[in-house]
Amino acid sequence: MICRIAGTLIERRDQSLLIDVQGVGYEILVPRGSRVGGDARDGRIALITFHYVQTDQSKSVPVLIGFGSEIEKEFFEKFITVSGIGPKAAVRALSEPVSVIAQAIDSGNAAFLKGLPGIGPQRAKEIIAKLQGKVGKFALIPDNGQPLPAAAPATDAAGEALEVLLQLQYKRPEAEQMVRRALERNPQVTDVEALLNEVYRQKSQS
To answer: What is the pLDDT of residues 49-78, one digit of tens each?
Structure first.
């Protein structure tokens, strides 16, 4: 399983990058909304990758999909849990930043979602039904165009939520306050995903 790839950017195509890795060229599919190597021009580039094998009746083809961060990949993996959305369809659909799509899902904005490439009215409803209330963490990503650093490990829900917010480039005092207020509002939350959803709901209402 290929989970990361680094090399020299050879060519930037419509929905993929061609990367040279020690003399071997790899074509990596990349969603247009991903923060991948926006400034890389024939220079070094590193991608987090999702690796799968596409099969049909006559052949099996390995496919690599690239992302600018683990959190983008995590959102992608949630997105393809929706019935009828495979990896290639998701690459095409994710034409806007993860934070924008996550906000649309959380708010039930079917009009926005059905405008994504390959996502019609029925699929938009299915996305909302499957993922609404589960993507608040991704909606918290600041849309500043910068790649996200790796998160540090944490030992409990509050600590892990804090580390995720730091990963998303919030300042520590602000992140600590966001977690504290979310716990004050809903002290029964013990799961990190639910806690981050609570943080997002609180932020969107302020």
So the answer is: 999 998 877 788 899 999 988 889 999 999
Cβ-based neighbour number of residue 68 at 10 Å: 22
The arithmetic mean of pLDDT across residues 152-164, rounded, is 72
Q: What is the pLDDT of residue 95?
A: 93
Q: Report the domain count for the chain.
A: 2
Which residues, listed in sequence order, are joined to residue 45 by a DSSP beta bridge? Answer: 7
* Segments forming the whole domain that contains residue 57: 4-67
Kindly state whether residue 43 falls inside one of the protein's structural domains. Answer: yes
In a domain, 96, yes or no: no
pTM summary value: 0.74
- DSSP states along 150-176: PPPP-SSHHHHHHHHHHHTT--HHHHH
